[in-house]
Amino acid sequence: MSSKVEYNSKESEQKWYSYWDEHNFFHSEVDEREPYSIVIPPPNVTGVLHMGHMLNNTIQDVLVRRARLLGKNACWVPGTDHASIATEAKVVAKLKTEGISKSDLTRDQFLSHAWEWTNEYGGKILNQLKKLGASCDWQRTKFTLDDDMYESVIDSFINLYNKGLIYRGYRMVNWDPEAQTTLSDEEVIYEEKQGKLYFISYPLENSDEKLTIATTRPETIFGDSAICINPKDERFTHLKGKKAIVPIVGRIIPIIEDEYVEMEFGTGCLKVTPAHDENDKTLGEKHKLEVFDIFNPDATLNSFGLHYEGQDRFEARKNFVTELEEKNFVIKVEDYTNKVGTSERTKAVIEPRLSDQWFLKMKDLAKPAIEAVLKSDDIKLHPKKFENTYRNWMENIRDWNISRQLWWGHQIPAYYFGDGEDDYVIAKTKEEALVKAKQKSEKSISLEDLKQDEDVLDTWFSSWLWPMSVFDGIRHPENEEFKYYYPTNDLVTGPDILFFWVARMIMAGYEYTDKKPFENVYLTGLVRDKKRQKMSKSLGNSPDALELIENYSADGVRVGLLLSNAAGNDLLFDEALCQQGKGFSNKIWNAYRLITSWTVDENLLQPESSKKAIDWYSSVFQEKLVELEDHYSKYRISDALMTSYKLVWDDFCSWFLEIIKPGYEQPIDKSTLSAAISLFEDNLKILHPFMPFVTEEIWHQIQKRKPEDALTVSKWPKLHSFDKQIISEFTFASEVISGIRTIRKEKNISFKNKIDLVVINNESANRTMDSIISKMGNIQDLTYSDAGMEGSLTFRVKSNEYFIPVDGAIDVEAEKEKLKEELNYYKGFLKSVEKKLSNERFVSNAPEKVVAIEKQKKEDALAQIETISKSLENL
Q1: Exposure class string for 603-621: b at 16+ Cβ within 10 A, else e
Q2: Is 683 helix (H, G, I), strand (E, B) or coil?
Q3: Residue-wise DSSP of 63-101
Q4: Runs of H (alpha helix) within 761-811
Q5: Which of 345, 258, 254, 355 is nearest to 297 (CA)?
Q6: I need a surface site. Which of 230, 231, 329, 732 has the fewest CB within 10 A?
């Protein structure tokens, strides 16, 4: 055995990751073992490693590495998501720098550029995950636009359409004018924004009377179809059947009646713009109003905007308000705070827009998914508190708008052969579509007559199949791998996509397999800075993930991230935590160096103190192993780390190694060293999921091992019965040792000098730990007595009294003076507490808890007075 002087994390990380990869340790094939499968939440192909990814993937890696050590056939499937909106935006931006507009290209030309961009820049994040130590089965890497994945998505669409679950409809949708596509309701973020409420005057036709309408969006006046009043509103009964004139526009619109209008809200008169508001659309359909869509796809005004045509909606608003003011249509303007829908992806303000789109019926799909999480407990959310969020979403679910006006993605398999509302067929190929179209139409149709839908499917429509499609379970549900690895075991993700992704995967799982897609969902918190702000590039408060690894090592960052993160709670990240993680790596490394620095004397007998220390640490290790099992079973990953951290740092390094350490330049016996190495190896096993690199490095430094004996594929320590009594005895002994050390430090008695210790054993404590007390306290003679000793320093552990004879080691007179000062202080303190307790008014009126605290203060003061008095007697 040998050790390097210093641990080189960079060298170790590169060496061991290559070693694991070279020996295929992360690859899984179907065999007779119990499977443990987990699928990565596929990051965007455009993505780079950030703090959220670091946390999420560290947790996944901990679970996977532990499963491997438990002897399970661990399979962690990695992959990336094509991210329709984000990727298309990147490609469009890149083309713009080259002077190319998307509108100048054919679909195939654009997709050629998109693939070129993806192949050059995409998937970087997967290589970055390797730096973190992620033990994914890289041979199984998937991309949501891979041929087999693409086919799975199309098969799914056709299947759901044939079941009557997918339909095409002209609906009000959320329109992102920047990405120029629709968004589902879940992709719209509502933010409170300070705006204005404009009170606008509408003249009545053939009358001098005017109505006042309040609106936050004056530009939508160009799309007004009617004014609505409540039929019960007596203020406006005279307006029934009359008409109003839209300011500037000059359009004559009817005044309609509907109880939808709240009489107390605003002016009691509502402008109705069916093309730009969901509720107005409903009113428009009910009252058969005209529809005026005033916006172009990029949210500039079209010809309905008159002389504002081509202006951006916000620019047009400002200019139009100026004109309205100049022509005396504006009554007043008030500050107004309202919630504005913005695009999750582009942050653009959403426009409600009427459009032909594809929708998936969700109500029936949601039923088994509600049952699985909220009733049968087949799928468990960790922490459980997120069940309420899940319930709220699922029980109020709406149909899912699954079409997107983009080119990058899975093109919808709908083929049109005419202009009629029903002139389309759903088919996997154009040739298949032709056959179906001929069956559906009486016209003569050729391949050239067929036009495939331009739209692609929402990105989430591919990722909701992820746990199934990565094992080819959609196309070939009877295949061996799918039957072996599915359902998967755990899913680790953020609560922000609990509905987007998690709930939808559950729905898809039950729809296609009648099985849950996973058993447990571990929901991580958000990574925030010390000011509790969410970490993001835009705020400039997010450290560079790879730079952190460079500075603190992968193990250090992994430990730093997990030290303060419990499931579902936000992580308040501080780089000091990574420094702490790095410090822990060094602590383990130095413990190894210490052990291997000792020389062995084959003839040396094992000291009693070492024998007891081995018995104690073996038991405490088993006790902590049980604790770890409990933490892992409840997905308390941070608690599992903290248990391991304290066990190794405190119990092993601070106590065990100090007890068995031979004297300066003295040898160690063979039995103790062998036991120490064996226990150290067990420590490495429980630390390995958290700190894979440093543990693997030390594992191979301890002795040369074959690849099949590498730590990453070794066996988790076995649970055995353990001696609770010895743990209790050691805890008591450690308090005695601490008492001795405190007196040595306070009285400046060198730790090199041997001292005597006399014990009055009021606790009837077992003497099995005397050899450890003697060694750790550097005790020359430890004796038990019925009486204390004069000329001694004293301390207590519970009711046991301990006496250390002074024998000229300290200045007795100076010590007496010091003790007298302490005694006078405690006597004065006791007097003030007793005065308070003798006050009947205080005792009667003060809260019970406060009185109890004062009584405890009295007890503590009495105990201190007794101890100091005995010390004075003994000097």
Answers
A1: eeebbebbbbbbbbbbbbb
A2: helix
A3: HHHHHHHTT-EEEEE-EEB--HHHHHHHHHHHHHHTT--
A4: 770-777
A5: 355
A6: 231
DSSP string for residues in 252-316? EEEEEE-TTS-TTSTTSEEEE-TTS-HHHHHHHHHTT------B-TTSBB-GGGGGGTTSBHHHH
| Residues 502-529 pLDDT 10s | 999 999 999 999 999 999 999 998 888 7
Give the residue from 205, 195, 201 showing the smallest Cα distance to 221.
201
- Say whether 322 sits in a helix, a strand or coil: helix
Give 566's pLDDT tier (boundaries 50, 70, 90): low
- Give the Å distances, CA to CA, from 4 to 12, 134, 697, 705, 712: 12, 26, 11, 17, 22
Question: Distance of CA 21 to CAs 332, 519, 649, Å?
Answer: 70, 29, 31
For the chain, residues classed under CATH 1.10.730.10 are 545-552+574-722
Longest dimension (CA), the chain: 119
When pLDDT is cut at 50, 70 and 90, the band that residue 848 belongs to is confident
Name residue 451's beta-bridge partners: 416
Q: What digits encode the pLDDT tens for the residues 22-49?
A: 999 999 999 999 999 999 999 999 888 8
Position 789 scores a pLDDT of: 79
Burial (CB count within 10 angstroms: exposed 0-12, middle 13-18, buried 19+), residue 59: buried
Number of Cβ within 10 Å of residue 92's Cβ equals 18
The whole-angstrom separation of Cα 559 and Cα 9 is 14
The CA distance from 843 to 305, in Å, is 80
Report whether 489 contacts 37 (CB < 8 A): yes
Provide the whole-model pTM: 0.84
Residue among 539, 556, 717, 522 nearest 645 (CA): 556
Write out the two tokens for 476: 């070939």
d(CA 191, CA 692) in angstroms, rounded, equals 42
Structure tokens at 498: 């609990």
Question: Residue 614: which H helix or E strand, with range?
Answer: helix 608-633
The whole-angstrom separation of Cα 639 and Cα 618 is 21
What residue type is assigned to position 363 of the chain?
K
Q: Compute the residue count for the chain.
A: 875
- Burial level of 416, CB count in 10 A (0-12/13-18/19+)? middle
DSSP character for 716?
A: P
CATH number of 545-552+574-722: 1.10.730.10
Distance CA(166)–CA(401), nearest Å, equals 10
- For the structural domain made of 181-351, what CATH number should be given? 3.90.740.10
CA distance 519 to 372: 10
State the Cα–Cα distance between residues 747 and 749, nearest whole angstrom: 6
Where exactly does CATH 3.90.740.10 map onto the chain? 181-351
Handedness of CA 332, 338, 343, 347 (dihedral sign): positive
- The answer to whether 768 and 760 are in contact (CB under 8 A) is no
Average pLDDT, the chain: 92
